UniProtKB/TrEMBL annotation:
This is COBRA C-terminal domain-containing protein. It is found in: Cell membrane. Its main location: membrane. Residues 400-518 form the COBRA C-terminal domain. Belongs to the COBRA family. Keywords: Cell membrane, Glycoprotein, GPI-anchor, Lipoprotein, Membrane, Signal. The keyword Transferase does not apply. GO terms for biological process: cellulose microfibril organization. It is a lipid-anchor; GPI-anchor. The lineage of its organism: Eukaryota, Viridiplantae, Streptophyta, Embryophyta, Tracheophyta.
Length: 520
């Protein structure tokens, strides 16, 4: 998909001409959005608002002031149900993978150029003072000759004020200036302060050479209740990098073909790519099993090799971290020790966990490590970036587990909702994904949801309950919890919790959290 979108950009993007006069007169940050073209998409429908249009656009963030713009953030107020399928030069913040819905607008942050230098410091080098974002996507409605423009654009960096943008045909632009009333917290260093979140990822470059570097990646679970089981980590290389070797983790695919037939293969002509770990632009990385901890080739890394378990910091601080190391090779033109860039679009997920939304990498003060030979000295990382991830609220039918309810005073069990953890398209033919779940006999809890049909139908007939012609689909949850009220009396009540693991994977050291509202 990304390759196809890139070809679309190459065919259709026509770079805008000279900057408007407003940019020449701007003393601050000049931002712009240019709609380049759009084409009617399929299917062709009569309803104007439902008709899709493929579009190409560019956005610019140009530093025309005297100060460096750190970690620029550009908001584009899309308003025509836009779906982004491609973006280069900037990363949509807090959106999922492409295609990504941005109908309520989106914030773009820098990937390969997170900071914008000043013209004074760079002799007006546009490659350092300007970020150019190429965008391809789909929008709906607005029949020609109408021009579907965003509602607004603005720079979201603290300390800047943006006026209402001007619109000139298919171009929108504004000059954002420093806010004289803003009192910034002066940083003593050029680094960002470290942030807090549910989970943090630290990208520490330990050794740097002209064409490669060694990096240690640390994931730390800071949420007091949440945990990750069998985590998978992914990110996106933005400058043609590839993973030569790893310790403490492994990539799900070990394929060197993308290196051989790409830029890396042209530059590293004498390299044996059969020894390369991974050449994917978006590798998926998993933790090693415990038996690999003492493996001198791929193990021997502190906090590695626990089958992807990240416990809460309250439950076990010693197991709230995971680490692995990589040797990363770079591609032209980044062939010097100073050209160091972290990957973008970080994402972490587990088999039985909430979804996480990760922010962009922020350059922070280099991490400190004890001297490995035991000397009373401190070793600093060459460069360090921090990625902060926070749990997002589960969407309907996107949860990972569900709860059934039962009590001593009723012999029926209230089941999990239909398709509580999602339904496949094939389920529509066999069952009704929109029907209300049917009551269960208590013994049905002891078998997986796909084997409860006969017991559920027999129970409904015994209790004179209606049985639909097309039965409701199951909950499709790999783990379920039963909450059973054992007793209820004037001074209080008692309950029993039973957990069921229907997956073939073991969940070690499980725990569950309960929230009691007022009155309990």
């Amino acid at each position: 998909m990304f390759h196809h979108a890139n070809e679309v950009i190459k065919r259709h993007v026509k770079y805008p001409g000279p900057l408007p006069k407003e940019a020449e007169d701007c003393n601050g940050v000049f931002i712009s959005y240019d709609l380049l073209d759009r084409r009617k998409g399929f299917p062709r429908v009569k309803n104007v608002t439902a008709q899709s249009w493929a579009f190409n656009a560019t956005a610019k963030v140009l530093n025309t002031g005297k100060d460096v713009v750190k970690s620029w953030k550009l908001f584009i107020g899309f308003q025509h149900h836009e779906i982004l399928v491609y973006a280069s030069g900037g990363i949509p913040f807090e959106t999922g993978d492409f295609p990504a819905s941005v109908e309520n607008g989106t914030t773009l942050v820098g990937s390969s150029l997170p900071d914008l230098e000043s013209s004074i410091n760079t002799a007006n080098d546009l490659t350092q003072i300007q970020a150019l974002i190429q965008i391809a996507g789909t929008q709906f409605g607005v029949r020609p000759p109408g021009i579907p423009m965003p509602k607004n654009i603005k720079l979201e960096n603290d300390g800047y004020k943006c006026p209402q943008p001007s619109v000139r045909k298919s171009s929108m632009f504004a000059c954002c200036k420093s806010d004289p009333t803003y009192k910034s917290k002066l940083l003593k260093t050029k680094y960002f302060p470290r942030q807090k979140g549910d989970l943090t990822i630290t990208y520490d470059i330990l050794q740097a050479y002209d064409n490669n570097y060694n990096v240690e990646v640390t994931m730390e679970n800071l949420n007091p209740l949440a945990r990750l089981d069998h985590w998978n980590l992914t990110f996106e290389w933005t400058r043609g990098e590839f993973i030569y070797s790893m310790k403490g983790a492994f990539t799900r695919e070990m394929d060197s073909s993308k290196c051989i037939y790409g830029i890396a293969g042209q530059y590293y002509k004498d390299m044996d790519f059969t020894k390369v770990t991974n050449c994917q632009k978006n590798p998926i990385i998993s933790d090693l099993p415990p038996e690999k901890y003492n493996d001198t080739d791929i193990g021997k890394i502190p906090f590695c090799c626990r089958n992807g378990s990240l416990y809460s910091i309250i439950m076990d601080p010693s197991q709230s971290k995971s680490k692995f190391q990589m040797q990363v090779f770079k591609s032209p033109p980044d062939l010097d020790k100073k050209s160091l860039f972290p990957p973008a679009r970080w994402k972490i997920m587990g088999l039985l966990n909430s979804d996480y939304t990760c922010g962009p990498p922020l350059k922070v003060e280099p991490s400190q490590f004890p001297e490995p030979r035991g000397l009373e000295a401190t070793v600093f990382a060459i460069s360090t970036w921090q990625i902060v991830c926070n749990m997002s609220k589960p969407k309907l039918r996107k949860t990972r587990c569900c709860v059934t309810f039962s009590a001593y005073y009723n012999d029926s069990v209230v089941p999990c909702n239909t398709c509580a953890c999602g339904c496949d398209n094939d389920d529509d033919r066999r069952c009704n994904p929109n029907a209300k779940a049917m009551l269960l006999p208590s013994e049905a809890l002891l078998v997986p949801y796909e084997n409860r049909t006969l017991k559920t139908v027999a129970w409904a007939k015994l209790k004179h309950l209606s049985v639909p012609k097309k039965l409701p689909c199951g909950d499709n949850c790999g783990v379920s919890i039963n909450w059973h009220i054992i007793s209820d009396y004037k001074g209080g009540w008692s309950a029993r919790i039973t957990l069921f693991n229907w997956k073939s994977i073991q969940f070690k050291d499980w725990f569950t959290a309960l929230q009691f509202k007022k009155g309990c």
